Amino acid sequence: MEQLCIVTTGGTIDKIYFDDKSDFQIGDPQIGQILRDLGVAFRFDVIPLLRKDSLHVTDEDRDLVRRTIEAQPHSHVLVTHGTDTMVETAQVLDGIPGKTIVLTGALNPALFRGSDAVFNIGCAVGAVQSLPPGVYIAMNGRIWHPRDVRKNRDANRFEAV
What sequence ranges are listed for the domain L-asparaginase N-terminal (predicted)? Predict the structure, then answer.
């Protein structure tokens, strides 16, 4: 992998807590700082495309994500995305030729202690470098094709369908 293209769409991974509002808001993308803090040995660019909870991602947003990825010169793409509709977005990205695309996110905000964000990002980085072209989801220590996985909201994890 000569360079990793990272497209961010928001989601829990980028949520921050505002005490005065008692609410979560989507903040700046966290992945760039996480990768810098880890001292990764590859180059990357971050394209902050959306700042949305995935429940609010529209078909037009998914088309924008697809067009953005198609326009990138790099063949390795990591997408941070909210977990509720990650599978739907992955299915829209399926079929982009010549690119290995891995979607990941977090069930708890990256800024929170004990978040799964760093672990999921690490799995996604390993996956994007080792898998053949196609679209994949990296969550909970597993890699799935989008047609073979769903989010179990009750158990708050991803599982095979």
Answer: 4-154
Check which CATH number belongs to the domain holding 10 and give it.
3.40.50.1170
pLDDT tens across 131-149, in order?
Answer: 999 999 999 999 999 999 9
| CA end-to-end span of the chain | 31
Domain count, the chain: 1
Residue 57 lies in domain: 3-160
Residues forming a β-bridge with 118: none
The answer to whether 84 is annotated as binding is yes
Q: Which of 8, 9, 12, 100 is catalytic?
A: 12
Distance CA 89, CA 57 (A): 9
pTM of the model: 0.94
Distance (Å) of CA 58 to CA 5, 52, 70, 144:
22, 10, 18, 23
pLDDT tens string 18-49: 555 557 788 889 999 999 999 999 999 999 99
116 marked ligand binding residue:
no
**Active site annotation includes 100:** no
